[in-house]
Amino acid sequence: MNSKGVSEIVGYIIIFGIAISAITTIYIHVNSMVNDAKEDVRFESMLQGFRKIQDAVESVVYGKSTKKEVRIVLSGGTLQVSSDANLNTRVIINNSTAFESTDILGGVEYRYPNYIMAFENGGVWVKSFNKTTIMSNPRIFIYKKNVNNETIVFVAITSIRGNGSTGGEGSVTLMFELNSAEINLFNQSGYLYMSINSSYADAWKSYFDDLRGYTNNTVLQTNLSGSTLNITMYFDRLVLAKYSISAGIQ
């Protein structure tokens, strides 16, 4: 009788242990799924916020208003106005320099443990686990006219100037104000050289490589070295727009 009682107790302990193990496994799996879902919601919310930033800056630079504010919701992480990226631009026509400038691109960055999201020179970029992805395109285009087989290039340089940072939970307001706008038109064929120094240089390369595939007759070359991307682009006509914008966080 004693052996039978002990066997029953051992059986109950084994069954109880299996049940606890199964419940623990299910809890861990469900909890992981919930956390993943929360991270997905956080990411999509920030992405929509940065697209609102892109829309606000475009509204400022293209003349709908000289000032614009954007309110986005933070769920942890840190938001800051950055001044790391810079761009050197040179236009060559008839073997002579027709235009040259060096600009601090600046931008807005959101840093979270698993990724960095940024608005830089008109585009939205995400860096995660050393891989950079373009989420929304900058304002650099190539048009191919069938008449006269002309290549028309449009480049917008958007320089964000400012400082400030914030973090934690809740909503935050970003203010954007146009300082200056400059439009340069080149109606003779030539070459445009750009050198972008940026944390997102590899994604910039992917963007320009896609532009190269847009038309077979466009001469476009890229060379990536570390965080610096060099671009050479042929044009028949070039529109080069430069915008300086003040940014602040409230």
Layout of SSEs?
Elements: H1 2-61, E1 67-82, E2 86-93, E3 96-104, E4 107-112, E5 115-120, E6 123-128, E7 131-136, E8 140-145, E9 150-163, E10 165-186, E11 190-197, H2 201-214, E12 220-225, E13 228-235, E14 237-249
Parallel strand pairs: 9-14
Antiparallel strand pairs: 1-4, 1-10, 2-3, 2-11, 4-5, 5-6, 6-7, 8-9, 10-14, 11-13, 12-13
Largest sheet: 9 strands, mixed
Distance separating the two termini: 78 Å
Overall radius of gyration: 26 Å
Q: For the largest sheet, list the strands in their spatial order.
A: 7-6-5-4-1-10-14-9-8
Please give the number of β-strands: 14
Number of DSSP helices?
A: 2
What is the string of helix and strand elements? HEEEEEEEEEEEHEEE
Write a brief caption for the model.
By secondary structure, this protein is of the alpha+beta class.
List keywords for this structure.
250 residues, alpha+beta, nine-stranded mixed sheet, 54% strand, five-stranded antiparallel sheet
Structure description:
InterPro entries: DUF7289 (IPR055713). Keywords: Membrane, Transmembrane, Transmembrane helix. It comes from Geoglobus acetivorans. This is Flagellin. There is one protein chain. The chain has 250 residues and is an alpha+beta fold. The protein has one domain (32-249). The chain contains two helices and 14 strands, in the order αβββββββββββαβββ. A nine-stranded mixed sheet has the order 7-6-5-4-1-10-14-9-8, with helices on both faces. Strands 3-2-11-13-12 form a five-stranded antiparallel sheet, with helices on one face.
